[in-house]
Amino acid sequence: MLVIVAVTTRTIARVSAPSRPLRIAAVPLMLAAGGLLSVQSEINGRLAGAIGAGSRAGVTAATISFGSGLVILALITAALPRQRRALAALVAAVRARRLRVVELAGGLSGAFLVATQGITVGTIGVALFSVALTAGQSASSLAVDHAGLGPSGRQAFSVPRAIAAVFAVSAVLLAASERLVDDFSWQVAVFATLPLVAGVGLAVQQAINGRVAAQVGAWTTALNNFAWGTAALVLVLGAMAVARGLPGPLPSNPWLYAGGAVGVVYIWLTALLVRVHGVLVLGLCLIAGQVITAQLIELVAGETHMGPLGIAAGLLVVAGVGVALAVRRPPATEETSVRG
To answer: Keyword annotations for this protein (predicted)?
Structure first.
């Protein structure tokens, strides 16, 4: 399996017009990338819970996740001449104004997302977190395309995206209503809005990451994201430590520190796979993989926060993905309009 993934991703990086077999092979990778985001949410949520409670524990977990991811990326970049040249190309692109500094700031959205994982997952569960996140991501993608933030510039209104957004927003309302009826509290209500906002930022992050990846490649784009996100989280955690002190001691379970490595693979895959199917299909497959994996995680863990309505909400998101894919524009038109 690992050999197949390596060959597929290497081929994607080398071609500008993917063949039909390559497009088919990329679909399970896109679904897997979405699943990785749910896995990271579960890991970071558990890490935050093991550290303590509240926003300090969440930000501490996010800082550890981003910081460890940055270390992994930096070490590999230093060891590979090709990636060192790509990093130099990033600096040159900024100096030549082919990239603006604001286009490098996608990692700030990622930092907010990871901090939100640590703060909210322990309270609302990974499934509701994922449904809320995908609702924000789907709805905001319409505005992101209209504003022209992606690498292909401004895009006209897309009926498939609108369908996916309607399904996703309906799903989060359905899932949230069940949880609020069963266990109403303002904390759950407020916490459910945080991943919704994070989803808005995730759509922006994917768009500007596409601009950076078009200049310097997916790997350097991931390194840039982790550098910005780590810097922001260290500043926030430092301010919290000065005001309220540090949270409790760090846990000894090594698996709780795997969130950074998972995040590295997620960012790299999404920046790479957007070349194959474009932003639309990538986003839809990420949503499907994320929601399905989140439901499976809670089912296996035996700690589900969702009942029948929550499961229906997850199925509604997946149904929206299927409908949007079924009625999307012909491949030639889609590639012309969304390719980064």
So the answer is: Membrane, Transmembrane, Transmembrane helix
| Predicted confidence band of residue 141 (pLDDT cuts 50, 70, 90) | confident
Nearest partner of 109 among 89, 136, 71, judged by Cα: 136
Contact 106, 210 (CB under 8 A): no
Contact 51/251 with Cβ under 8 angstroms? yes
Find out whether 328 and 277 touch, Cβ atoms under 8 Å: no
User: Within 10 Å of residue 64's Cβ, how many Cβ atoms?
Assistant: 24
Tell me which residue of 121, 248, 116 sits closest to 194, measured CA to CA.
116
Residue closest to 319 by CA, chosen among 292, 280, 338: 292
Contact 222, 23 (CB under 8 A): no
Classify each residue of 118-127 as buried b or exposed e, where b means 16 or more C-beta atoms within 10 Å of its C-beta: bbbbbbbbbb
Structural domain count, the chain: 1
pLDDT digits over 190-211, tens only?
Answer: 787 888 888 888 888 878 887 8
Q: Where are the alpha helices (DSSP H) in 183-258?
A: 186-216, 218-244
List the domain range (segments joined by +) for residue 154. 29-338
Question: What pLDDT is recorded for position 243?
Answer: 85
Structural contact between residues 131 and 314, judged by C-beta atoms closer than 8 angstroms: yes
Instruction: Name the burial class of residue 15, with classes exposed (0-12), middle (13-18) and buried (19+) by CB atoms within 10 angstroms of its CB.
Output: exposed
Say which residue the tokens 């800082």 belong to. 63
Q: Is 217 helix (H, G, I), strand (E, B) or coil?
A: coil
How long, in residues, is the chain? 340
Q: Is residue 256 part of a domain?
A: yes
For the CA atoms of 98, 101, 102, 105, the dihedral, rounded to the nearest 10 degrees, stands at 120
Decide if 188 is inside a domain.
yes
Q: If pLDDT is split at 50, 70 and 90, which confidence band does 73 have? A: very high
Task: Provide the pLDDT for residue 106.
Answer: 85
Residue 15 lies in a domain: no
* Distance from the first to the final alpha carbon of the chain: 28
CB 191: neighbour CB atoms within 10 A? 20
